[in-house]
């Protein structure tokens, strides 16, 4: 029930709704187009004759006998062993998130509670490093990594990604911790906790939304990273994103482009599931930092 | 149960002095109130006792051990914070149980101890709620319950009532007083509210600018303020203070002349008296000046004059009426007067 005062005029409402609908279409279209097209053959999805072929799958019907084909997926996952890349991505993401959250919560808490001035400068430097494009760091890494035989391994990439993400996680967690009143740690310590127990039993349970939000962001940074993974991983250790890029790089072979399209869909789907699953925590986490309670 | 001693305790941050040479001996079972305006070092003193703040200099002795270098958890104290400091993710019951859990009190004793604290703080109806679902007064009682659930040697309370509304403050104050007398635990209570200090304390420590101004029972402090700071801080309204000159037992200030004071001291002095001790008279009053304002308080009226730079008020009966600007007289017998040295602010013994 809205009163006359708060009700908006119909023109505004129509404009707002239509804007929203258009925006939604524009935003969702590339995903839907790719999803639909991933079940077609290359001749349809990249049709020079008629773009509508991608919608109706004329050539797909001619080549395979059905409107939809899983050939792209089969090629990517089985023939080109995309599952290996998926596994590598999982390993990289799990370790990056675990390490950066462990260091981030401990460091962010320490910085949030520190009364020293250097805490501020430390965070400022962290921000400067974060502002640097990752590729500037990566080029410097290459030579020592080759010489020390560290190049190409997953763990090297994990370390580099953690190093690049850590400033951001520190910043984010630091501001979450800042919003938790100091009285909470102090009452825990008076009640019989050590500093670490207060952190573990009192602060972290209150911090969950913040930890999950930060974890998700650092997951996304690791998951979507291209610059670092493409430069530092050998072919057999590639994660999903450089693997997709390498499919696209071999357009001479017919069908390989469709592998890329299917792989893109395969790489995007888990993100949707993930965001849906954590949406409540993300929302409360994002707002928790915004307003000082 | 313990005696708490502070010996030459100092707290400095760089060149800023938070607490200056604080000496105090708090007896077992005593209810001691640290009173002073904000920034006077009272909370810092308490936080040093709790171990939340390092002592720059001096010793804090709890029972028979120096606790300067002990962690808060090893000092066997409990503390109630101004903002309560409740654990938002735990229910009332679990909040109160928390100190028992972390201190590894045998599990089978928990329920009995927690329920006892819940009864004492009358939280039976709310014990399964979380702090967010409670009112301010209820939250404060949870904080109290958590403090009393085990038997600490000292209770520390840092302005526990200042976030409550006026009515609730009065009832919670009574509850705290009652709890302390039942538990007989040494208590240090910090407040800037002199009424809280007067009603709760066995002894009050008045502080200003990091220094102790006066230590004494509430009556001592009210009747014999040690200096003009204490005089102007204690009482509602605070003591009237008028600057003037004392010569041969007669005090003379602008619009005021009091005779019959001791003949010994002389020179520039500040005369103090309480609003409730003086009375309005028709003739022969020591104050005779145009009235500055009249305020109705309900049970009484407050008449105010402007004498020199100071506003001087006295209480009279509620039917009294006069117009602003009328010359009104008041009797200030020498027996109700306090004298302070104007330069140092210290009390002049009569």
Strand residue percentage of chain B? 25-35%
Mean pLDDT of chain B: 90
> Which segments of chain B are poorly predicted (pLDDT under 50) over 5 or more consecutive residues?
none
Structural class of chain B: alpha+beta
Number of separate strands of chain B: 21
Give me the CATH fold name of the largest domain in chain B: Rossmann fold
Shape of chain B: elongated
In DSSP terms (H or I, runs of 4 or more residues), the helix count of chain B works out at: 8
**Multimer state:** heterodimer
Number of domains of chain B: 2
Query: What is the CA–CA distance across the termini of chain B?
Result: 40 Å
Content-based structural category of chain A: mainly alpha
Distance between the termini of chain A: 30 Å
Give the name of the CATH architecture of the largest domain in chain A.
Orthogonal Bundle
SSE inventory with pairings:
The complex is a heterodimer of chains A (293) and B (350).
Chain A: H1 10-37, H2 42-45, H3 53-56, H4 58-64, H5 71-79, H6 82-113, H7 118-131, H8 134-147, H9 154-178, H10 182-190, H11 195-224, H12 227-232, H13 240-248, H14 256-288
Chain B: E1 4-13, E2 16-26, E3 31-35, H1 42-50, E4 57-62, E5 65-66, E6 77-80, H2 92-102, H3 107-120, H4 136-148, E7 154-158, H5 166-183, E8 186-191, H6 194-200, E9 203-208, E10 211-216, H7 218-223, H8 228-233, E11 240-247, E12 250-253, E13 256-258, E14 267-273, E15 279-281, E16 287-296, E17 301-307, E18 310-316, E19 327-331, E20 338-341, E21 347-348
Parallel strand pairs in B: 3-8, 3-9, 6-7, 7-8
Antiparallel strand pairs in B: 1-2, 1-4, 4-5, 9-10, 11-12, 11-14, 12-13, 14-20, 15-19, 16-17, 16-19, 17-18, 20-21
Helix pairs in contact in B: 2-3, 2-4, 3-4, 4-5
């Amino acid at each position: 029930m809205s009163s006359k005062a708060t009700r908006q005029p119909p023109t505004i409402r129509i404009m707002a709704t239509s804007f929203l609908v258009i925006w939604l279409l524009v935003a969702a279209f590339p995903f839907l187009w790719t999803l639909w097209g991933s079940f077609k053959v290359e001749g349809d999805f990249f049709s020079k004759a008629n773009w509508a072929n991608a919608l109706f799958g004329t050539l797909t019907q001619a080549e395979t006998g059905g409107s939809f084909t899983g050939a792209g997926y089969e090629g990517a996952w089985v023939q080109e062993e995309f599952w290996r890349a998926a596994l590598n991505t999982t390993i990289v993401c799990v370790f990056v998130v675990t390490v950066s959250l462990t260091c981030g919560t401990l460091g962010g808490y320490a910085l949030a509670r520190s009364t020293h001035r250097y805490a501020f400068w430390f965070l400022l430097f962290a921000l400067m490093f974060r502002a640097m494009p990752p590729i500037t760091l990566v080029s410097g890494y290459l030579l020592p990594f080759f010489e020390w035989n560290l190049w190409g391994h997953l763990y090297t990439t994990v370390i580099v990604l953690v190093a690049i993400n850590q400033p951001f996680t520190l910043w984010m967690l630091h501001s979450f911790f800042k919003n938790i009143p100091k009285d909470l740690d102090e009452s825990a310590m008076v009640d019989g906790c050590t500093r670490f127990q207060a952190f573990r039993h009192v602060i972290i349970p209150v911090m969950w939304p913040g930890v999950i939000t930060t974890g998700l962001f650092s997951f996304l940074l690791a998951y979507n990273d291209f610059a670092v993974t493409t430069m530092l991983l050998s072919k057999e250790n590639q994660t999903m994103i450089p693997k997709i890029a390498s499919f696209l790089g071999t357009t001479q072979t017919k069908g390989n482009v469709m592998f890329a399209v299917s792989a893109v869909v395969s790489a995007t789907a888990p993100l949707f599931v993930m965001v849906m699953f954590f949406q409540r925590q993300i929302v409360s986490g994002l707002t928790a930092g915004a307003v000082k309670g | 149960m313990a005696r708490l001693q502070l010996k030459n305790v100092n707290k400095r941050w760089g060149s800023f002095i938070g607490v200056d040479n604080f000496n105090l001996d708090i007896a077992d079972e005593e209810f001691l109130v640290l009173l002073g305006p904000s920034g006077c070092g009272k909370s810092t003193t308490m936080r040093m006792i709790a171990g939340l703040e390092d002592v720059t200099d001096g010793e804090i002795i709890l029972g028979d051990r120096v606790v300067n270098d002990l962690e808060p958890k090893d000092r066997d104290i409990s503390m109630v914070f101004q903002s309560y400091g409740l654990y938002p993710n735990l229910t009332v019951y679990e909040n109160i149980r928390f100190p028992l859990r972390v201190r590894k009190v045998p599990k089978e004793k928990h329920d009995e101890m927690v329920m006892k604290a819940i009864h004492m703080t009358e939280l039976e109806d709310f014990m399964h709620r979380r702090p967010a679902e409670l009112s301010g007064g209820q939250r404060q009682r949870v904080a109290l319950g958590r403090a009393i659930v085990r038997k600490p040697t000292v209770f520390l309370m840092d302005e526990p009532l200042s976030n409550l509304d006026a009515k609730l403050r009065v009832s919670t104050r009574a509850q705290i007083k009652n709890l302390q007398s039942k538990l007989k635990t040494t208590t240090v209570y910090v407040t800037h509210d002199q009424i809280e200090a007067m009603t709760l304390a066995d002894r009050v420590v008045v502080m200003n600018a990091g220094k102790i101004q006066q230590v004494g029972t509430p009556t001592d402090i009210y009747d014999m303020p040690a200096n003009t700071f204490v005089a102007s801080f204690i009482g509602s309204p605070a003591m009237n203070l008028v600057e003037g000159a004392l010569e041969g037992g007669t005090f003379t200030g602008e619009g005021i002349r009091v005779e019959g004071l001791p003949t010994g001291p002389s020179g520039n002095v500040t005369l103090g008296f309480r609003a409730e001790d003086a009375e309005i008279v028709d003739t022969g009053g020591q104050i005779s000046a145009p009235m500055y304002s009249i305020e109705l308080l309900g049970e009484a009226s407050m008449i105010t004059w402007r004498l020199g730079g100071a506003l001087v008020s006295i209480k009279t009966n509620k039917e009294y009426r006069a117009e602003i600007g009328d010359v009104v007289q008041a009797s200030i017998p020498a027996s109700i007067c306090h004298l302070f040295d104007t330069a140092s602010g210290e009390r002049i013994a009569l």
